[in-house]
Amino acid sequence: MDKLDHRRTALLLIDLMARIVEQPTAPHSGPDVVARSLALADAVRKAGGFVVAVRVERPGVAEQPPGSELVEGVVGDLEIVKRPWGAFHNTGLEEALRQRAIDTVIITGIATNFGVEQTARFADEFGFKVILPEDAVTAFDAHAHEFAFDYIFPRIATVCTTAEVVAALD
């Protein structure tokens, strides 16, 4: 993996909310994804990069379900609230990244084939370099995760590990 320019790199933490993290996931557990995402957030911040916490809210309801808050420790320099699967649609995320001259996004979170994939696809379409650390992403089904990482993500992103991203930030 190429060295990352911290001034032009952002970490997007997708849907690391209590009600999502506590669900059964595969191939990685929700708490493991949170731990790796927090390690990446620390590395990105130490390098001088930008961290965005993204959470989903259900549209058209008066009150969000219990557990809709970000899990402990997940804090962004910016928090984005999304309603569809992806983090870019009508959220101001693209504009916030462009204002900071960010051209590279590292994406972690839950679920691989929902919020993570949709965000990665839009990031690629908008011209961002996309980095997906496989061990910091998980799905509700191992097959769905493996399919995305085997067939979709290699075409739109750099697939790697958390350790490789941390090394590229040093």
Describe this structure as you would to a colleague.
The chain has 170 residues and is of the alpha/beta class. It has six helices and seven strands, in the order E-H-H-E-E-H-E-H-E-E-H-E-H. Strands 1, 2, 3, 4, 5, 6 and 7 form a seven-stranded parallel sheet that branches. Helix 2 runs parallel beside helix 6 (162-169) and helix 4 runs parallel beside helix 5 (142-156). It starts with 8 loop residues before the first strand and ends with a helix. The mean pLDDT is 96.
Number of strands: 7
Our count of helices gives 6
Query: DSSP strand (E) fraction?
Result: 15-25%
List segments where confidence is low: pLDDT < 50 over at least 5 consecutive residues.
Answer: none
Shape: globular
Tell me the radius of gyration.
14 Å
N- to C-terminal separation? 12 Å
Summarize the helix and strand pattern as letters.
Answer: EHHEEHEHEEHEH
Give a quick account of the main beta sheet: strands, pairing sense, barrel closure: 7 strands, parallel
Mean pLDDT figure: 96
Helical content (DSSP H or I, runs of 4+): 25-40%
Structural class comes to alpha/beta
List keywords for this structure.
seven-stranded parallel β-sheet; 39% helix; 21% strand; alpha/beta
